[in-house]
Design goal:
Blueprint lengths: L13 H29 L11 H17 L1 H12 L1 H21 L5 H25 L8 H29 L2 H22 L17 H25 L7 H26 L4 H24 L5 H9 L21 H23 L6 H27 L6 H29 L5 H23 L10 H30 L8
Length: 501
């Protein structure tokens, strides 16, 4: 693929503009609803909530966020073999929009139907729109990395808009308006995508490895059969014919995702005809994957237990009555992460480059271990804050803001580094599959996060310090183990790559 001369979007191909704004509005809808989920599920019936227990709400939250990432695997397959990226993103966006509309129309009765639609649509849209960014550039186009950086900025702008809008609407207007705002955000993304997708590069349109003839027909039949089975299960569950216990289901799904991860990883390691250098790098990559799952199990407390802490135990009073509000919306505390990412990302990008120039560049595993330590430190801050809350006090907002700052530093140490590790350490002929396997660590981490948050008991605040200390100590223990193993993994990472380093 030749390098494109198109530079109509801040020096980048025009197709990036389409993808930038589509992703920005899709992330606005996703993060807007994600921020509200646990708060809505645990709110009392008098406050128009579902009045679920924290354990049930946490399990559902984990299942939803975990499914979003897991469904990216079949979503990527559909684009590669049947739909093509351009159509996959369009249909995924339509399904997401339908899910948000269902939620806005009848939150109480159609809540789970809406969640399933949003998760399904996100699984179809998210992996393919990310892949399409790279397809806007030629193989030797030096703008590719900065294009992804610009695209990542769209993600964070979307999350900023989400927290501001849904937080304000939920506090001032109610749940229906807040969830409805997510539908409006996705609608805006679809509208601009429809009118501007002509600028997308040709590689974005057709499937990369399409089925042909009879194989294509059989593939569509299999897809239809899966959709039919899922629809029947949803109807049976909605009508009460079958009863699903969320906590038990989340535990089983977490085990299933973990087994799938290790079985697929093991299959590539033992049956992939890897040479010795590739096998050594796979061991280093396994450590990165374990670090990723552990990190997200703590980080994703943002939408669950930390969200509940902000609502119940944080002093949110506003004396000046900004925009007619007498308190800070609970959701707004999650703004901190997006703001800190925007501010700190250039610093970390420069940090790794400068360390590399000084020949003291830490290994991938050391960087991920450092990320976990920062995340654990955030929970040590919450341990101290929860001790004040246990005394019946409302704590200052800076406790949560400090925690989110430390978690963001951890994210910047781990998340981009882990993605880079997957792309560099994976055997080249399995690069795509290994990225799919790595995405499973997000699913595992999210489900564990939901189960952990179920131990948060708003009625028994004395249990909070022990919960946060437990997460912190477990995380530090994992970081120490990975740090010690990194003494060996540095050599694994460089196996067969020294001439390229």
């Amino acid at each position: 693929m030749k390098t494109s001369n198109d530079s109509s979007f801040f020096g980048h191909p025009g197709g990036l503009q389409t993808l930038f704004f589509t992703e920005m509005w899709e992330r606005m809808s996703y993060y807007g609803m994600r921020a509200l989920l646990v708060l809505f599920m645990t709110a009392s019936v008098q406050k128009e909530g579902l009045e679920f227990t924290v354990a049930t709400a946490g399990a559902i939250y984990g299942l939803y966020t975990g499914a979003v990432y897991f469904l990216g695997l079949p979503g990527g397959w559909l684009a590669d073999r049947l739909l093509g990226g351009k159509r996959a993103v369009w249909y995924g966006g339509l399904i997401i929009f339908a899910g948000h509309v269902v939620l806005a129309i009848d939150l109480q009765n159609l809540f789970f139907v809406g969640l399933i639609l949003v998760a399904t649509g996100t699984g179809l849209l998210k992996p393919n729109i990310s892949a399409m960014v790279g397809q806007q550039y030629g193989d030797n186009d030096a703008r590719r990395d900065s294009g992804y950086a610009l695209y990542y900025m769209g993600i964070n702008l979307g999350s900023l808009i989400a927290y501001l809008v849904t937080g304000y609407l939920q506090e001032g207007w109610g749940w229906d308006y807040a969830f409805g705002a997510a539908a409006v955000g996705m609608a805006l993304g679809l509208i601009q995508y429809h009118f501007t997708n002509g600028s997308l590069a040709g590689a974005s349109v057709e499937p990369a490895n399409p089925f042909i003839g009879e194989a294509k027909r059989k593939a569509w039949m299999a897809v239809a059969a899966v959709i039919a089975v899922c629809a029947v299960v949803i109807v049976l569950a909605h009508t009460g014919t079958i009863v699903i216990e969320p906590v038990s289901l989340a535990q089983k799904v977490a085990i299933f995702f973990t087994l799938v991860f290790f079985l697929y990883f093991g299959y590539i390691y033992f049956k992939g005809n890897l040479n010795e250098d590739e096998k050594r790098r796979m061991w280093a990559l396994l450590l990165v994957c374990i670090a990723s799952a552990c990190f997200w199990s703590g980080f994703e407390q943002a939408g669950s237990s930390l969200n509940l802490f902000a609502q119940n135990y944080t002093d949110r009073a506003l004396s000046s009555g900004w925009f007619g509000m007498d308190s800070i919306p609970t959701v707004w505390f999650q703004l901190s992460n997006a703001l800190f990412i925007i501010v700190l990302s250039p610093f970390f990008a420069a940090l790794w480059i400068n360390l590399s120039k000084r020949m003291i560049d830490p290994s991938y595993t050391i960087k991920t271990a450092i990320g976990i330590v920062f995340m654990a430190t955030g929970f040590l801050v919450m341990f101290l804050a929860s001790q004040y809350a246990a005394q019946g006090l409302k704590v200052a907002p800076m406790w949560l803001v400090t925690t989110y700052f430390l978690h963001t530093v951890g994210e910047l140490c781990l998340s981009p580094v882990a993605l880079s590790a997957v792309s560099k350490l994976s055997p080249k002929r399995f690069a795509g599959q290994m990225m799919g396997v790595f995405v499973l660590t997000y699913s595992i981490g999210n489900i564990i996060a939901g189960l952990l948050s179920g131990n948060f008991d708003p009625e028994n605040v004395e249990t909070l310090p022990a919960l946060y200390m437990q997460i912190a100590l477990f995380s530090i223990g994992i970081a120490i183990v990975i740090g010690l193993l990194s003494l060996r993994s540095r050599h694994w990472e460089k196996s067969g790559l020294s001439e390229k380093a």
